[in-house]
Amino acid sequence: MKIVDGRVVVCSPGRNFVTLKLVTDNGTHGLGDATLNGRELAVVSYLEDHVLPLLIGRDPRRIEDTWQYLYKGAYWRRGPVTMAAIGAVDMALWDIQGKALGVPVYQLLGGPSRDRVLVYGHASGRDIDETLRAVERYRELGYQAIRVQCGIPGLEGTYGVGRGDLYYEPAEPGLPPERRWSTERYLDFVPELFDRVRAEFGPEPLFLHDAHHRLTPIEAARLGKSLEPYRLFWLEDPVPAELQEGFRLIRQHTTTPLAVGEVFNTVYDCQQLIHEQLIDYIRTTVAHAGGISHLRKIASLAELYQVRTGCHGATDLSPVCLAAALHFDLSVHNFGIQEYMRHSKETDLVFPHEYTLEGGTMHPGDAPGLGVDIDEELAAQYPYQRAYLPLNRKLDGTMHSW
Known about the structure:
Helix 5 (128-140) links the parallel strand 4 and strand 5. The strands form four sheets. Strands 4, 5, 8, 9, 10, 11, 12, 13, 14 and 15 form a ten-stranded mixed beta sheet that branches. A three-stranded antiparallel beta sheet has the order 1-2-3. It has a three-stranded mixed beta sheet with strand order 7-17-18, with no helix packed on it. The longest helix is centred in the first third of the chain and has 22 residues, at 80-101. It has 402 residues and is an alpha/beta fold. It has helices at 40-55, 63-72, 80-101, 105-108, 128-140, 183-201, 217-226, 246-253, 271-275, 291-304, 319-331, 345-350, 376-379; strands spanning 3-11, 17-24, 29-33, 117-125, 145-150, 172-173, 178-181, 206-210, 234-236, 258-260, 281-282, 308-309, 338-339, 356-358, 361-363, 387-388, 391-394, 399-400. The radius of gyration is 20 Å and the shape is globular.
């Protein structure tokens, strides 16, 4: 079996997606998600101009060798563009292998370690009352785990507050919008939010919260400590993780579980965090961390230190990536939870899929491969639209993490 064709499909059914399609000489095709929010065309160029010429004629069954060929063979390693491209190739090769053998990908990964995958949804509102109503809607839908985000009084356009009931899409057409941010107001407000949430819904639901890299280590320590009475499932991305040592300070002051990693690209980005047990959940993604092959290696390292997985699964990743994540989640022993943000109806039509949601859990389905396809004719009706994520500035105008 050999790869004889490859192409990149860019479409925007509600938001931009980049999909790699590889085709073999027997007509089998595999899909990979190469979407990099706000920098999509950089990955398109990397794939079309540099990667695809290297894949024609290669045996798609040599998945590990191809991964190393693209990673070590390029000399210029790592980074989000490179790893998103490698991740897309890796997903497509696993998809082809599953189809060639007539089995779902999770069977190739050792079979299921659980019956279904626990997922969490996103509840948000402009104020606490609206947020509580959103939490109630997710509870009615059967979600056992819910991320809770809320507008901060006096601030406009706070991260995590969606424009719809069931999904949150922050990217906006045109130049990136600029928002104002106050850490002081945020730190004072969040404990009040979760005090109301627990009073309303009791001790049973699993609640999560995302600080989105906006705090310093000591600020994150204060927040984690103040949230301990409300028993969060995790506090996500409390600080920018370039300074991995910063998590030591947070750990010294709070027992609130910590999650990080959606912007990581390789195991080296989280090696210290895992080895020193500075985090509880690693959130690397199939698309941005080099595909299923590399994500398995991250999970294997994490398992040694009792760190569980919690893959990023926002709407800036296509159903192809979500399906790949679910196959990984079902198979890996130290799975923790999977983020799930519902795609738009247009996206679901462009990417018909086998995975299902039931009672706050998901299953990737038993179709051969990943169980996702792409309707290229329909995709062509949704051309690319340049869009950017928002920016944050402090109240005095200083650039800050969004």
